[in-house]
Design brief:
Elements lengths: L1 H18 L37 E6 L2 E6 L4 E3 L10 E2 L15 E10 H14 L1 H6 L6 E9 L4 E10 L2 E7 L3 E10 L4
Antiparallel strand pairs: 1-2, 2-4, 3-9, 5-6, 6-7, 7-8, 8-9
Length: about 190
């Protein structure tokens, strides 16, 4: 019995030894297959946002791909959390979630709605996102729309209803607008 245990331990040690990769430096790690190389992104990966969205959002890169995060000086947060930091990843469209490989932005198209068009969109967003409906009583003077396409050809829309120049919401539609994809954008005053 003991010889079988020693033999199993020996084989296990051999298996671990032969399957472990050896690197020249301790912090060298292989890049996962399909991961985004942020130092050398694909040529068609977008690196900037259209105005005015570039005021409150920037593009960030990770092994999974690119995503929108809060611009310096701005705070993004979910309605019921001060700790979780929202983002808007290129892999958010429903069709992209399970697709292999890195996802990144290849097209942005920005529009602004005002007047009756803003009021109609506000009503649609309020119906889809109860937290938005409860927080934003008045129809925003303007609602920014960002149409996004990722490298897989999948699309999503982010709506940015603006209560003021320093208080907005972001509501992602991937394609449906969902409460779990809605968050607050705020720029603290001096």
């Amino acid at each position: 019995m003991r010889s079988k245990i020693r033999q199993a331990a020996c084989c296990l040690g051999l298996l671990i030894t032969t399957s472990t990769a050896v690197h020249a430096h301790g912090n060298d790690a292989p890049t996962p297959i399909g991961a985004m190389d942020c130092g050398h992104p694909p040529e068609n990966a977008l690196r900037s946002l259209p105005a005015p969205i570039d005021q409150w959002a920037i593009i960030d890169c990770s092994a999974l791909g690119t995503k929108l995060i809060a611009a310096p000086g701005w705070q993004w947060r979910f309605p019921n959390s001060w700790f979780d930091r929202p983002d808007a990843p290129a892999w958010a469209p429903d069709a992209s979630v399970d697709a292999p490989g890195a996802k990144y932005f290849v097209e942005f198209d920005a529009h602004v709605l005002e007047g009756a068009a803003a009021a109609e969109q506000h009503a649609r967003l309020a119906a889809a996102v109860p937290a938005y409906r409860d927080a934003v009583q008045a129809v925003p003077a303007r609602i920014h729309r960002l149409d996004i396409e990722n490298n897989l050809g999948h699309e999503m829309v982010i709506w940015f209803p603006a209560a003021s120049p320093s208080d907005l919401w972001a509501i992602l539609c991937t394609p449906e607008c969902r409460a779990d994809y809605a968050f607050i954008i705020h720029k603290p005053g001096p």
